[in-house]
Specification:
With 497 residues, this protein is an alpha/beta fold. It is built from eleven helices and 25 strands. The strands form six sheets. An eight-stranded parallel barrel has the order 3-4-7-8-9-10-11-12, surrounded by six helices. A six-stranded antiparallel sheet has the order 2-15-19-20-25-22, with helices on one face. It catalyses: Hydrolysis of terminal non-reducing alpha-L-arabinofuranoside residues in alpha-L-arabinosides.
């Protein structure tokens, strides 16, 4: 099979916001306790943070991490997690029905994020709480001093404000599973008024209005239209969440699910722009895809978990090779929409539907999905390019005209590097790719990274990494034309410098 691309530095989508390589840590399962924080672990630092985990996170160069939830935030009292640890309450955590010890809270997470080289994206509770708790938390985090909550932070040992810039106005407020679920009218009003108060405390923040929990929600996209009627002028982003799975074991259909994400993004853009037009607004709203990933492997195991235990192994999806391919196509989809998708958070980061797993007292290891995320984060910085591609197509159960080739390119002007990201969705055949690269005169192939495996279900574990990339891809560049062979079912990064 043959496919082609034109990659020209003149065809720019937009400067990529590095925050599209964000991630997420929720107080859920073993993400915090036993994940990023395990005081007795041999690699634990003076604050109990696992240094082996920090190293893997730093390797990923994660620019921003959403915290503390997720569903958990909708019944969370942030005050429980600050001040002397010994006097913090143990609470029933209602979203996941566990015991929350509150050993970690806002200040410790800010410390962890700093050590990880990431910013914090903070969510406020608009489920059981509202304007007051949100503005107090913001004052606690960002106000320098001389007020009740800023001085409280200082008394807790944090003289410098955390300067958290990006704030989510609640989480998945359309979901019946959410504590304090709202109608679109209720949410729109509450979010708008919370945003107003928060901006009075700190006008420099950026705010995210909750969109639908996924594109199959009954109110989608009316939820966006109604809530944005209220919040449009008060916020900077609308959120999207979506998880994918292959429970029916149909790999050809599964690998096409990036097209669903693409459609979702386009619909949210249209809806936001409709409200912009209605309001005669000069402002264009951007998208924060602040939860995305594969999530289905752990569904059955989670039903067996006893309620009211501390940090049980919840949502521990053990990813396989086909999941890594899908994740690759999803990352490419974000790059194609770099003009509007400015934040995206791989949900989540450690142990809970995560690229990084830990053994209690033992090692930290990389799941299959770690690799496309790593490559995109490292090499997908700069300007997203509009590539013109031609590919043979196939039909699957839910999709028609699915291109075997899913690809895009990123131009890093500063480093004078180009990266082509490409997935070959064909399960049996390689794809012969011809790329017109004439605008990149003088460039040479630095590396052709490939993630491939004969077994779609191959997985990594603490004992063995079966799915790892290699740099032996088959490509050559001659007279401005790049010829590459993309192996059947593979993720590829072709780097030119
Ligand atoms: O990431 C796991 C959960 O998925 C989050 O808590 C919630 O926001 C979503 O439903």
């Amino acid at each position: 099979k043959k496919a082609s691309m034109v990659v020209d530095k003149a065809y720019r989508v937009a400067e990529i916001d590095k925050r599209i390589y964000g991630s997420f840590i929720e107080h859920l399962g073993r993400a915090v306790y036993g994940g990023i924080y395990e005081p007795g672990h041999p690699t634990a630092d003076e604050q109990g943070f696992r240094k082996d985990v920090l190293e893997l996170v730093r390797d990923l160069n994660v620019p921003i991490v959403r915290y503390p939830g997720g569903n958990m935030v909708s019944a969370y009292n942030w005050e429980d997690g600050v001040g002397p640890v010994a006097s913090r309450p143990r609470r029933l955590e209602l979203a996941w029905r566990t015991i929350e010890t509150n050993e970690m809270g806002t200040n410790e997470f800010a410390d962890w994020a700093r050590k990880a080289g990431s910013d914090v994206m903070m969510a406020v509770n608009l489920g059981t709480r509202g304007i007051d708790a949100a503005r107090n938390l913001l004052e606690y985090c960002n106000h320098p001093s001389g007020s009740y909550y800023s001085d409280l932070r200082i008394s807790h040992g944090y003289k410098e404000p955390h300067k958290i810039k990006t704030w989510c106005l609640g989480n998945e407020m359309d979901g019946p599973w959410q504590v304090g679920q709202k109608t679109p009218e209720e949410y729109g009003r509450l979010a708008a008024e919370t945003a107003k108060a928060m901006r009075l405390v700190d006008p420099t923040i950026e705010l995210v209005s909750c969109g639908s929990s996924n594109s199959a929600m009954p109110l989608f996209p009316q939820w966006e239209a109604t809530t944005l009627e209220h919040t449009y002028e008060h916020v900077d982003f609308v959120s999207l969440h979506q998880y994918f799975g292959n429970a029916e074991n149909d790999p050809a259909n599964y690998l096409a699910k990036g097209l669903e994400m693409d459609r979702f993004i386009r619909t949210v853009i249209s809806t936001a722009d409709f409200i912009k037009a209605k309001k005669r607004s000069k402002k264009t709203l951007n998208l924060s895809f602040d939860e995305w990933n594969v999530w289905y492997h752990s569904n059955d195991a989670d039903k067996q978990i006893e309620p009211w235990t501390i940090a049980p192994p919840q949502l521990e999806d053990h990813y396989n090779f086909e999941d890594a391919l899908l994740v690759g196509t999803l990352l490419i989809t974000f790059l194609k929409h770099a003009d509007r998708v400015k934040i995206a958070c791989l949900a989540q980061l450690v142990n809970v539907i995560a690229p990084i797993m830990t053994e209690q007292g033992g090692s930290a290891w990389r799941q299959t999905i770690y690799y496309p995320y790593l490559h995109a984060s490292l090499y997908g910085r700069g300007v997203a390019l509009h590539t013109l591609s031609k590919s043979p197509v196939y039909d699957s159960k839910e999709f028609t005209d699915v291109p075997y080739l899913e690809s895009t390119a990123v131009y890093n002007e500063e480093k004078e590097e180009v990266a082509i990201f490409a997935v070959n969705r064909h399960l049996e055949e390689g794809l012969q790719l011809e790329c017109d690269m004439r605008s990149f005169e003088g460039y040479k192939i630095a590396e052709h990274i490939v993630l491939e495996n004969s077994d779609l279900k191959a997985r990594n574990s603490a004992a063995q990494e079966a799915v790892v990339p290699h740099s032996g891809g088959n490509s050559k560049l001659d007279g401005g034309v790049l010829q590459a062979v993309l192996a059947a079912k593979s993720w590829n990064v072709i780097r030119l410098v």
